[in-house]
């Protein structure tokens, strides 16, 4: 035995510790841990001196370290096909300084014993660097992502702390997007372990990489290992020398039924891939197409539970002397010459002892034989194997228990609450986005304050929520809400209520909102005396904008909903229903900030035992499908300050027992679609103080039984687009005291069956072009008694006195005088 050589070394920074004992635990279900003891040689015996500060426990903790395992068999008496070094890289999570020269009995008694080399003994825990994720608990929330991305984001916080590559290349399945993934009161290691394991993903590491798997595929050459149960192993061969299989009764942890644990409660069988109609999944599911959400259930599925159960039933335990077997490695075990089975290593525990290195520590003055110290150098490991055709399914992790309730703030599209306060921001399902207080502090620690994109949309609970029935209110941006958790599940938050605070106060009652200006004495007067020629006083409806809200609310029952908008944070604009409970002043008060609408499926009845007053600031409109009946025992007085319009599509009958008087202050207009008929039993008199204008699109016919007499004090103008005809069975006379003028753009003609005469002192005829005078027999033009011009069909006679000039077809003749030229 060469006491100077050791096959175990632990390197921390630049220090090289020789390890005398190590227990290494590895599993696909948890990160690796190495518990080891060893020493460091130094010329000084005081570890706490300034000269030895580099191996002071304070300088060793949380430092990167590497445990190197060489061939543990002295003189390589077991021949391995390869003598590789197994290296475990991690961090020091625990340091215990045991003392100096602990192996020498003399040094135990005499602490001032001086020698060249002092052995300082330590106990270490070498952990996976992933242990750094386990030091602190955190609260985070992730939205609209899948578990792989969440694991990557969580590991990204430790980019400079792990110093190993993260390998996701062995993730083959597609993981659906979750609407909400919560981390609550969990360390980051617990969180990613829960997410991974509950979805059938496992992870492990070697010296350089951290691997994530959801489906096992072996890489490289599969090692063939002999099974040799001979405990002496005279041939010194590499082998598995012990195989055993443990079995214990298992309960079906995911059902209360008495089904056999070998056949877990699953709707689908792994072997047949068909639905099993003999079992019923007895857990009610809230996730469906009606829940407005993607599947947020992060519990283990029955299929994975069945895989886990199948794997546990096929686990095999083994012991070997082979030091270079790796986790998640495939091996073939040759149990007999014709029997070879392939397995995957899912867990490994190694026990390494090298006490022989302490032989040179013994002081010869101790009078103690070295052989009596039982110093040795040995190696063994315990393996947990599963058949390679099964993919390792990790154990299931429980979710953290959420708080009963927590608080949250409703936020908007971005993180600026003040600029959006009192407004509404929802998704397509009407859910509101909430920044939950549980996660606010963690966001600040992560240097991601106001991570509104990691704020979920939550449903709002209601006392009644039925199909198109119930009560519903959408919390507004800036509201403080209470968050509860359905099924006690941290991934199922919902808004269970809201709280008033100093910013959003309770509904404040104010009445009256509008001032009434109708004189009370006028209303009282109407109760007694009908007013035929007088209407109500003018209505003056004014809004009281200077009121102060009653912050005590007088303990009235008030339902109020303020108008949305950042400019209405004082809630002066709102809809309100208030039930006053003062004795003898009970009142039901409704305030509609803008519109007020009622929809009634059948009848609507009102019974008012006293007065009813309606004040309408603008238009008042009624739509009645069938009929409108009013029975007024007393009088009816309608006072219209502006226009009054009535539309009757069919007939309208008005019965007036006595007289009917219509007083119109300015204009009166009557529009009749077709005929208009008036029947007057006696006279009709129309008095017009100004003009009378009639516009008739077609004919105008008047039938007058006797005379018609029109007296016009001014002028009379008759204009027509076509002809004008006057027909009288007797005379037609047109008389004027001044002149009579007839003008035509075309022509003027006069026609009489007998004579047509024009009598005037002077008659002038002017033709701009031609003047034609035609007679069938003769034309006589006479001036005085002696001068005439007579035209017949065959001659013209000009006569002056007794002289005649005759022009005919024979020529020109003169009678009674001479023809001469002067």
TrEMBL record:
Residues 571-672 form the Gp5/Type VI secretion system Vgr C-terminal trimerisation domain. Residues 428-500 form the Gp5/Type VI secretion system Vgr protein OB-fold domain. Pfam families: Gp5_trimer_C, Phage_base_V, Phage_GPD. InterPro entries: Gp5/Vgr_OB, Gp5_Vgr_C, T6SS_Vgr_RhsGE, Vgr_OB-fold_dom_sf. This is Type VI secretion system, secreted protein. SUPFAM superfamilies: gp5 N-terminal domain-like (SSF69255), Phage fibre proteins (SSF69349), Phage tail proteins (SSF69279). It comes from the Bacteria. It comes from Campylobacter lari NCTC 11845.
